[in-house]
Amino acid sequence: MGDDEAVVVQVGDLVDRGPDSAGVLDVVRRRLEGDPRRWVRLIGNHEWQYLGGERFWPEPLPEAGAAG
């Protein structure tokens, strides 16, 4: 497969990973709109958390190192 046939799969975690989540989402959106056959965008856990708020985890996660 040559570069002109390559498919880019973006595997999520675009938000909450730096100072410009909105800018990152905009870049990926523009690429997807430019050639939707070559770009696949998956939603990562950070996107699900952003979309679902506190409903993302039904219970708080235990503190790191806590006995469970």
From TrEMBL:
<feature type="domain" description="Calcineurin-like phosphoesterase">
    <location>
        <begin position="6"/>
        <end position="59"/>
    </location>
</feature>
<dbReference type="GO" id="GO:0016787">
    <property type="term" value="F:hydrolase activity"/>
</dbReference>
<dbReference type="Pfam" id="PF00149">
    <property type="entry name" value="Metallophos"/>
</dbReference>
<dbReference type="InterPro" id="IPR004843">
    <property type="entry name" value="Calcineurin-like_PHP"/>
</dbReference>
<protein>
    <submittedName>
        <fullName>Calcineurin-like phosphoesterase</fullName>
    </submittedName>
</protein>
<dbReference type="InterPro" id="IPR029052">
    <property type="entry name" value="Metallo-depent_PP-like"/>
</dbReference>
